Amino acid sequence: MKQREDIVQKFSTFLSFRDDDGDQKTTWQADLQLERHMKSLVDSDPEAKEEFWTRHFLKRLKEEYPQESSQSMQFSTATFKIEKHLCAYLQEACIWAAQKTYQKFKFLRHKYAIEEYFQIACSFANLPAKLFKSFNLDRPHSNLEGYAKTAILRFIRDKIYQQDIEAKRLKFSEHGLLKDLSNKELQEALASKGFNQSQIDLYKLAWQCFDELYQMKQTFNNQSLAPPNQAELQQITAGYNRRLKNLNLPAPPVKEENINTMLQICIQAARDYRTKNFLPLEHCETISDPAPTLWDTIVQEEERDELQLIVSKLFDAVPEPGQTMLKLWLGLNLTQTEIATVMKNKYPELQKQYQVHRHLSRHTRNLLRDFVVEWNQIHPEFSLNDEGDIARVKESFEECLESHCQRLVYSWLERIVAEGSQSEKRDNKPVLGVDNLGKEGKRSLNDTLLINLETILNISVNSPNLFQNRIGNIIK
Amino acid sequence: MILSLNELMAVYPEQLWIEIEPEAREKAWQQTQNQKYSNAASRWNAYLNCLCLNSFTRWIKEEPDLQETLRVWPAEASLPSIWDVVNGTKLTLGETELVIIPNDKSAFAEFRIPQEWVDIPSWASHYYLAVNLNLEAGWMRVCGYANRERIQQRGRCDRTDRTYVLEPEDLIADLNVMWVARELFPAKKLAVKPLPTLSKAQTEKILEQLSQQIDYSPILALPFEQWASLIANDKNRQKLYQLRLAKQNIAPKQPTATNLSLWLQNIFEAGWQSVDTILGTQRETLAFQFRTNAALNDVSVKGLKLIDLGMDLKGNTVMLLVGLTPEIDEKVNIRVQLYPAKGESYLPPNLKLGLISPSGVTLQEVESRSQDNYIQLKRFKSPTGKGFSIQVTLGDVSIKEDFVLSSLIG
């Protein structure tokens, strides 16, 4: 993929996938209107950098969408244009997130293509006001692109899970679906139908009484829940009328037929809401961007090296199986199931994925704890004092841990490749550089790598294919 | 695509995932069946909380780094009186107080925390854990947690059900942050506004009022502060619970017959599961393999129940399978089989499986030998409107399941 260089391009072109005789090609397609607009902007201020324009657009967008009422959008062409500019700008972040997700989620039985991930990512980038909801523009150093990347990654992941839930719900009966809804989903579905909040409150009250009083006939599964019968409806109605009074809601009491109609409207709204494939963006876990703390400023500057130093020191103190597991997980990107396959011979307690999951979690927890202790000793003036502080440093800590593990893996690979070439020289075979490996060469390199990995990781590699793929990725 | 537990764990590696096996589900169900609740919603609430508590406790016990013992607050015996009216369970671990709050909706769209856990001084805790249960797929996950401060800052109070609502993004997803924080920093003192005290006369009046209507939750019937000061008091809460139960006038509950007609509509009562569901979710883990058994392939609905014959340390669990095939003559063809539980290849020897008529006559019976993979009764027909019982006997322990085929299909 060609990177975009020019500022006008960056804010006016979109990535498109093209199938060229079975060969996937990506091209940048310009939106002419956006291009003209951006050109005139750049002409008016030729000195301004990319970062300036992003912040400029974002600031204007935030003025258009007052924080709270992002539901009611006043659509102006100007807003629309700004959104498109930002969306164009986010294209690289989208493709980055799509590729990263693709690599990470290869183990899913249902495979999504990169294009699908990209599409999901773009559906989020299309709504930059939502995407940047918690981004703090007032901080001059906050990293806009990094923020967007993390937010998009999380969005894709939540979207996949949500699609999974929706796929299951397709099989639900009307009342089964109604029972499975959450308060918030119903709120959104009704709002999308154009009801006002006081109407929605009444519908939700009816639904709440249904949800509470209509217990599935003690079944574990409410997929095929039948509609309530007359007696049950009476009970729901009585509950509704009583609560109306308790809550002092300005609405008259209702009869069973009304309750039934109200529930039907809820069902219809929920069904329509799903088929519209409306993206309930509130569900996405946006990363909060709390006020700047001393810690943030520290990490931004040269202290990053120090962080890295602490992490590598602590890493060396992790017991042997933990180190190996972390190297496989973060350094070689093996899945937890794969780690179990590799390690179970030597460590019988690591048979199943959940066991690996648990051990990994324990090791990172202890590392995180030791990290906090160590940090507070070195920097009592910037000490971490509560869980809020820990939550804030956690991400930087994890990044350091990941890059430490990757560095370890890369350095072995380099060493092994170097030693491999040495021995080949001795054997009078052609010298192999990583750049020009023939088929033969690749195979023998992989063999060498495997043997050496066994020695380095001190485990027997009983499933070489696992490693070949990962190593292949790294070499590429 | 339906994501498996393994896949979900890898998609959300920072969250805590716990597998819930059918046995654990059955156990929690039995536990709550043995307690009394004023209505079906309360009973379901108790079941979810009990299951969640059992699973979480088991997980904590397996955690070698946690030295303290997890305790139920205020005491295990108080749980029914709490679960009868409020969702959530408070636990203590050393100095740390935490509340686990389950929900069983498939999407985790928001975290709703009952106001009682936040605003009653003795109930308030340091941490609130959002637990999402998927009973069908057999797992639970801790989607994240919030401390009390966070709830006060970010929580929106929904007055229609008296909960504080947090967005998923307001939670810390990784429970490790909580473990590290509680290990390194002393527990913060919680500052909770005291509640007004109720006079004796007031209390009596309120108790009377609240025990009138028992088919739904009483929480909205009073202003929050009155309600809160009533149930904050252990004695008064117990009294309320007893009064509500008395109103319900419950005789010890007769075990009811399983209605097989519902199965034909794909509705299974608690304790029973559709074999399709089980095979769909846990194919690898179950020992029984119906495919070897051609006799069952033409059966249209199959239901399965775990039966615990636990009279000795081996904890003999067996699986009772009932298959139904509707016939043209309004009768239903029934096949009954008994399988060893998960992980076992053979049934215990001398296990008896019998068919008993409504009047108590044993119509047929089979007994397992030393290496039987399963045993079964001869196929029989039962007319609609009639009942029958299946009895499983091992030594002097015997468990009877009653069935009925109601004629009200459709």
Q: Outline of this structure?
A:
The complex is a heterodimer of chains A (476) and B (410). Chain A is built from 21 helices and two strands.
Task: Provide a descriptive summary of the structure in words.
The complex is a heterodimer of chains A (476) and B (410). Chain A has 476 residues and is mainly alpha-helical. Chain A contains 21 helices and two strands. Chain A folds into three domains: 7-164, no CATH class; 171-275, no CATH class; 294-475, no CATH class. The model of chain A is unreliable at 67-73, 277-298 and 429-437 (pLDDT under 50). In chain A, helix 15 packs across helix 19. Chain B has 410 residues and is α+β, with helices and mostly antiparallel strands. Chain B has helices at 5-11, 22-33, 40-61, 79-83, 115-119, 148-154, 175-184, 200-210, 224-232, 234-248, 260-264, 275-282, and strands spanning 16-19, 70-72, 89-93, 96-103, 111-114, 127-134, 139-147, 156-158, 163-166, 258-259, 272-274, 301-308, 317-326, 331-340, 351-356, 362-367, 375-376, 380-383, 387-394, 397-404. In chain B, helix 2 (22-33) crosses helix 3 and helix 8 (200-210) packs parallel to helix 10. The model of chain B is unreliable at 281-295 (pLDDT under 50). At the A-B interface, helix 8, helix 10, helix 11, helix 12 and helix 18 of A face helix 1, strand 1, helix 3 and helix 7 of B.
